[in-house]
Amino acid sequence: MKDVARLAGVSTSTVSHVINNDRFVSEAIREKVEAAIQSLNYAPSALARSLKINQTRTIGMLITASSNPFFSELVRGVERSCFERGYSLVLCNTDGDEQRMNRNLETLLQKRVDGLLLLCTETHQPSPEIMRRYPAIPTVMMDWAPFGGEGDLIQDNSLLGGDIATQYLIDKGYTRIACITGPLDKTPARLRVEGYRNAMARAGLTVKEGYEVNADFEFRGGFDAMQALLALREPPQAVFMSNDAMAVGAYQALYQAGLRIPQDMALVGYDDIELARYMTPPLTTIHQPKDELGELAIDVLIHRMAQPDLQQQRLQLTPELVERGSA
């Protein structure tokens, strides 16, 4: 920058104003500076700037990769919100592995990201040793709460969502209603099946033996779980699927069994992934506001970065039923 200033015959602060476009500079001076920049093939150093202002304008995100489209749609919303607010997103996949999670976490902290978004499994906790080595960093946990701490938490109201989905099937006249759950070490999976049980109990309906099948929130898990339900002596009339990815697998299992949706089996999913509206028939599901979740997470994190001493926030988004053709 000093070389550019010397060649253009201006101060380094003027060069900075031209590059950052943050103060008025006359057109003649601007042209001289831009000519010097081009002549010297100068490119500003983001690293140098971040060291000077102690800010990288970068947000790190830890996520467990999955074939479930919910995650890619959520990340897309987060990245869009970062871009609109002048931040870059660094995405790291934990792959459900504790060692990989800790290594990625340390990488993000070494890069001095301004804040962290966490969307990963609850069964692993970040290494206290790593967290001690770095100053406290503003953190927002999205959807799942991986561990206790000072970070803010944004969640879908999964208990209400499971209740709404099951009550919809009850209102349609179904009495033999099963539930394919997600992994029960995940808070949303536990709360969704609890919502299912609450609705069934309120209606005076029995959850028959074998009607709760634990799966993994993935396509294959839904396929295998539906096959287990179809093998029962008295299969259900309807199934609440704890997410849409498993519903896709369930559709395939029903297709292979020669059964029709909803005539032979009614289904309600959860998440409202983009694929849900293009299935045959289109999937009735519980809408999770993924774009709003991503936008809210970024806004809460930026607010936390500006005011780190604020009291911890716990925010909850309200799910809504999207009625289509599968029930």
Automatic annotation (TrEMBL):
A single GO molecular function term of this UniProt record: DNA-binding transcription factor activity
Organism of derivation: Franconibacter pulveris
Superkingdom of source: Bacteria
Domain HTH lacI-type span(s) in chain numbering: 1-53
Protein name: Ribose operon repressor
SMART domains per record: HTH_LACI (SM00354)
Keywords annotated in UniProt: DNA-binding, Repressor, Transcription, Transcription regulation
Coiled coil regions, renumbered to chain: none
